[in-house]
Design brief:
By secondary structure, the protein is α/β, with parallel strands linked by helices. Helix content is about 50%, strand content about 15%. A 5-stranded parallel beta sheet has the order 2-3-1-4-5, sandwiched between helices. The longest helix is centred in the middle third of the chain and has 25 residues, at about 80-105.
Length: about 200
């Protein structure tokens, strides 16, 4: 039997973590997270962190020598060319981590959480794509509250990703998170095939 590999994505602050936590806690599904792999890729002493420090100087590092994510965010959320450079550096490493974890897992269903699933060209790693969406206004408000950003900063982060409409157009499953938590989780059950839509 071939593995069922769900690629979970969506816009920033649309509710991916809520869906992920539910899949892990209710269904005990293994969660492979691109953000965790990306963090590992730039860990202290890694060649990728060395390349980043060489490009942007020591001010991109914290006093302990680890990456200053906030500083890097300021650079890449406003400059497409710099974001592309970082992505090209980190994505191959993240892909390799996914491939290794998929190969090692004995589970028949895996969930890959990849915020940039379409942008990074990683859809070939999954057997189906799920997109979590909500209204633009909800997304903006959630992001401002969660990350303590101003409206301009929040918009820059949202605009740095493929639009939610484009993601939805490529999705096998769309999970609408513009209503209640109960309604969202019911959609997850249906998508997983554990319950009917009635």
């Amino acid at each position: 039997m071939t593995k069922r590999i769900i690629g979970l994505t969506g816009g920033i602050a649309t509710g991916k973590t809520t869906v992920t936590n539910y899949l892990a806690s209710t269904y005990n599904l293994p969660i492979l997270d691109a953000d965790i792999y990306a963090r590992e890729a730039v860990s202290l002493g890694s060649p990728i962190l060395g390349a980043i420090a060489q490009r942007y100087g020591e001010q991109i590092l914290l006093p302990d020598g680890s990456l200053n994510r906030q500083k890097l965010g300021e650079v890449i959320f406003n400059r497409q060319d710099e974001r592309n450079w970082i992505d090209n550096l980190i994505h191959p490493d993240v892909r390799a981590s996914f491939l290794k974890a998929i190969a090692q897992s004995s589970s028949q269903i895996l969930v890959l959480v990849v915020p940039l699933l379409f942008e990074a060209g990683m859809t070939d790693l999954v057997t189906e794509t799920w997109v979590v969406r909500c209204s633009q206004e909800q997304q903006l408000q959630r992001l401002i509250q969660r990350n303590h950003l101003n409206t301009e900063q929040a918009r820059a982060r949202i605009n740095s990703q493929l639009s939610i409409e484009e993601k939805v157009a490529h999705a096998d499953v769309v999970l609408d998170n513009s209503s209640t938590l109960k309604i969202l989780l019911k959609q997850v059950d249906v998508a997983l095939g554990t319950t009917s839509i009635d």
